[in-house]
Amino acid sequence: MTEIKEQPDTSGRTGTRLAVAVHVEAELLRFGLQAMLPGLAAVERAETFTHLGTLERALARDRFHVLILSSSNSASGSLGRLRHTPQGLRTLMLLDPVDAESDSALARLPADGYLLREELTAAALDRALRQLAADEMPMPLRLGRQLLSHAGESAPLLPTRRVRLTAREHEVLAHLVAGLSNKQIARHLRISEHGVKRLVSSVLLKLGAANRTAAVVTAIKLGLID
């Protein structure tokens, strides 16, 4: 993945500068993002793609840090149809109200972070992008509570499955549940961020999870955490 640039903002502080790709089919939402993204402090550049093939060619050049998708239409399934995505690409899903209320929306729409379309503002989007850059998962509080609630309710329906995590992986899993970033986990465990990344990858692999949200849900269903 292209290195994330650190540049001073207008207050003299160092900030994350990201290359953002947008693949959203709803015109009003797409135009709104086109107008909003260039003015965000976290964004170095933003490009919009209306066709999947064009998006795929751009991603193959390994030029983007974040891909923004919408749950409103076929764009929500685009990531699964891409033949190539650069390692480290983060996905941000904009959820429509109907998807936000759905018990299975997050399982059907895996991403590295979520925002509610009805609550989309420049400040919320900028904050979400910064969280993704810091290996954190942006998610509205009510959505997170709903996710954990449904995960607990559906636990008996999950087929029995044995997952063996090491003591260190259990520690990392607990920190993932708490929403900590890799940097914060490294500080708690007193190991390098590279070591944390390897442990997180191992946890995701063992749980068969595509991202941190899925890992937490699966761990709850399997009884690995309360």
From TrEMBL:
The keyword Iron does not apply. It comes from Streptomyces spirodelae. The keyword Methyltransferase does not apply. Gene3D superfamilies: 3.40.50.2300. This is Response regulator transcription factor. It comes from the Bacteria. InterPro entries: Sig_transdc_resp-reg_C-effctor, Tscrpt_reg_LuxR_C. Keywords: DNA-binding, Transcription, Transcription regulation. Residues 158-223 form the HTH luxR-type domain. PROSITE patterns: HTH_LUXR_2 (PS50043).
